[in-house]
Design a protein that fits this description.
single chain, nine-stranded mixed beta sheet, globular
């Protein structure tokens, strides 16, 4: 009997895991009815500093787009990321985000002050090397004339510096932490918050903190079932401290939870105008991702926050209080509650702007246009 019971029990466990996985899939539709405001392209979004002034009441009114969530014009930006382009079965979203910012460097509202790396999608040894390789390839191969004209005598790595960061939670004595602590512009976190938490603990003050992290899906949030959000789950303490210290220091926070990023789906067709070397490195993920999403493509998670830097009207945000729920059965889970009038930190978390919707069609159009101009060696 035990010979039968073993396989049966295993089959039951597999079936139970599949049911839990299916129940946890967000099931977000491609179309939600939200469309970007008419001024998203012409640059008429006001280049004013981010404000935490409530943009809508909290008492029962329907959620509406906000129009004050923009970054300060021409603010320098540091991208903190964990790219894994070319690593088998690993996501390519950080690479797409980093290349977007490199392509738009010094144009529109993006002025790249540096790149910091962190463990996450892959070990630090890989994410740091990949980030350096992306910077070198893009600046020297895609735009060699501008590099020579503007930075005579400098290499690509001197033009855009890449700072090595944390290799694990608690790794705080790094070049990335020093760079972030000295920075005074915008910071975009696309990986675990380890570097940012350490920099804020040293007194860093930024003009705006944009974070991709957290899931609002009901627990259980378990990595094995792919129902959690990796950035917060890999260093929950750092995620919590980053939000808390940012609030204590008056830094405006914009949060991209996992759910809004799942509203955008890319396929291999969306990458067809990118350089051949990049498409080759992305091939493994383009094969695996459709099986994981069940929707025939992949989610370009980290691309959304960097597009937000330049085109905030493409997104819809609401003002909420957010807290990280640190439980083994709810890894990466965040709790959102009504913000109320108090903007300080409370037991219910900190006040932030939460991105809740996106115009998928505009995101795809923007990426297509950028990749086409990049293929031709042009700047936006």
């Amino acid at each position: 009997p035990w010979m039968v019971a073993g396989p049966v029990a295993a089959a039951v466990l597999v079936a139970a895991a599949a049911v839990l996985y299916a129940l946890q899939l967000p099931g977000v539709p491609n179309k939600t009815g939200f469309t970007a405001s008419s001024n998203w392209r012409d640059g008429s979004d006001p280049p004013t500093a981010f404000t935490m002034t409530p943009t809508q009441p909290d008492q029962g009114e329907p959620e509406r787009p906000t129009d004050t969530v923009t970054t300060a014009a021409d603010s320098p930006v540091i991208i903190d990321c964990d790219p894994a382009l070319g690593v088998p079965r690993r996501d390519i979203d950080d690479a797409l985000a980093l290349l977007w910012v490199l392509h738009h460097n010094k144009s529109l509202r993006t002025r790249l002050a540096g790149v910091t790396t962190v463990f996450g999608n892959a070990p630090l040894a890989q994410t740091h090397t990949i980030a350096e390789d992306l910077v070198t390839r893009w600046l020297e191969q895609q735009q060699p004339k501008e590099v020579r004209a503007e930075h005579t005598g400098n290499t690509a790595r001197e033009v855009v510096k890449v700072y090595r960061g944390a290799s694990k939670p608690g790794d705080t004595e790094t070049a990335a932490v020093e760079a972030l602590a000295a920075h005074r512009g915008v910071v975009v976190l696309l990986g675990p918050c380890t570097n940012a938490a350490a920099a804020l603990a040293r007194g860093a003050v930024w003009s705006h903190l944009i974070v991709l992290g957290g899931t609002t899906r009901p627990p259980p949030n378990i990595r094995g079932l792919r129902t959690t959000e990796l950035n917060f789950a890999l260093d929950e303490w750092a995620a919590e401290k980053t939000l808390e210290l940012a609030a204590d220091q008056g830094i405006p926070v914009t949060l991209f939870p996992m759910e809004v990023c799942r509203r955008v789906l890319f396929t291999a067709t969306d990458l067809k105008n990118l350089p051949a070397w990049l498409q080759e490195k992305a091939a493994s993920w383009l094969t695996l991702a459709p099986l994981l999403t069940g929707r025939g493509g992949f989610h370009p998670w980290d691309l959304l926050p960097v597009i937000f830097l330049q085109y905030p009207s493409v997104f819809r945000t609401v003002r909420r209080r957010v807290a990280v729920l640190r439980r083994w059965w709810a890894r990466g889970h965040v709790v959102l509650t009504k913000a109320g009038g108090d903007q300080g930190r409370t037991a219910d978390g900190i006040v932030a702007q939460i991105v809740v919707d996106v115009d998928e069609g505009v995101v795809r159009e923007l990426f297509r246009e950028a990749s086409e101009t990049a293929k031709d060696g042009q700047r936006p």
